[in-house]
Amino acid sequence: MKLIKANAADGRVIAGGQSLVAAMNFRLARPDVLIDLNGVKELDFIEETPGELVIGAMTRHAAFHKPVCDGPLGRLLSKVVPNIAHYPIRNRGTFGGSLCHADPASEWCVVAATLDATMKIGSAEGDREVPAADFFRGSFTTAVEPGEILVAIRLPKLDAGWGTGFYEYSRRKGDFALAMALTALRVEGGAISAARVGLGGVADHGKRMADLEAALVGKPATAETFAEVGKLASTLVSPYGDIHGSAEYRRDLTATVVARALAEAADEATA
Amino acid sequence: MTETRDITLDVNGKRHALSVEPRKNLADALRDDCGLTGTHVGCEHGVCGACTVLVDGRAVRSCLMFAVQAEGTAIETVEGLASEDGELHPLQQAFWDKHGLQCGFCTPGFLMLAVGALRENPEMTDVEIRELVSSNLCRCTGYQNILTAVRAAADVMRAGTNG
Ligand SMILES: Cc1cc2nc3c(=O)[nH]c(=O)nc-3n(C[C@H](O)[C@H](O)[C@H](O)COP(=O)(O)OP(=O)(O)OC[C@H]3O[C@@H](n4cnc5c(N)ncnc54)[C@H](O)[C@@H]3O)c2cc1C
Ligand code: FES
Ligand code: FES
Q1: Identity of the residue in B23, B65, B134 whose CB atom sits nearest the CB atom of A17
Q2: Which of A10, A171, B11, B146 lies in disulfide reach of A32, CB 3.0 to 4.6 Å?
Q3: Contacts of A88 (CB under 8 A, 6+ apart)
Q4: Membrane spanning segments where (chain B) (predicted)?
């Protein structure tokens, strides 16, 4: 932490290097000093408490290939992880690195935003905690200030009644997604009693969508509801267009990924 | 920024004493400083996979790691696959037999990718192999023969360890 403080002005930390070194190879990033977190074993851990999963910032993506805890959360994380890049990149890239890099299409950022994670940020002065709603500030921008590092992520568990869904579309397997949706539903007597919905790739950062959640509660868990809420989602986002897809195309995709992720969550919740 | 650091890398069980800039990536250090040019460099940003090597048994992109970060790890490259007497590794033999290569530029990366993955999970299904092979790029083969080769090698390797 002292090293990080001393180099706050011109230093960067390196985690998996799967975004940073790529940027450095392009000479997009040229840090003067790199502080390597790979030797800091205390940051590579997964801890389970009764209500939470606590993930050390240096936990590699690959750690989630098999469920890391019982119940919907462990299953959800293992469903999401194959969508992140490719196997060799998952062997090296980290959960904390993804959150700090804060790509608009980062799967882990959508998980953190949708499930209301709390980020533990450390510095030579001590630790502070920041909820996901205040952590993501914009594309590639977070609440982590120079001289600070992300230490751990606290994810609230979902109890057994929840079903979860995740769906993303990318041009080629392993590419950053053009649109993705993460959902969690509780279904009682055919009707939706609680909902979580988050989107990625279609805004400046991954976001929890309270309006979509409100639109779901009380409705029947049917394909019609999911299509309708998907359509609503497409009107609420204002994606940017680039060579991978126009804004209009991404808006249409939003409707599709939301509907598909909702159907998956409903299936799981009623299974 | 031309200061160098003295490091020792353990590559295929042999120790290499090098003096490298901290900025030098592992792929370049293997090629330029260790003289092991089997590891190829295509894109330098993690996409093509030509530079895939094993670090402590796990397949990683050597273009996205600095050589200084690999000190103290066990590195394996394509040069370490065949045995001393020249007998090919089952994966190399299968790539040969099933025409899993044409120009060969991508081949070391695919071999190391598959070696790492099959070591972690010797029971890979066809779907898992397809997913795995999507990690790397090949401009020649159309991938089908690579899939066939990895499948065949997986079966040979499993038979070898069981029997
Ligand atoms: C070909 C390819 C495809 C990819 N596809 C995807 C994809 O589909 N989805 C996806 O989400 N990602 C994808 N990635 C990115 C990958 O997931 C990275 O691993 C991730 O974005 C960054 O994690 P890292 O550990 O490698 O961080 P690094 O690259 O080491 O660091 C990234 C940034 O975060 C900072 N940082 C890292 N850790 C900390 C910390 N603990 N505290 C403070 N700052 C920190 C660094 O200083 C740097 O600015 C892809 C990468 C490649 C090369
Ligand atoms: S050169 Fe490393 S992935 Fe292309
Ligand atoms: S054989 Fe030529 S790139 Fe794969």
Answers
A1: B65
A2: A10
A3: B49, B52, B58, B59, B60, B61, B113, B116, B135
A4: none
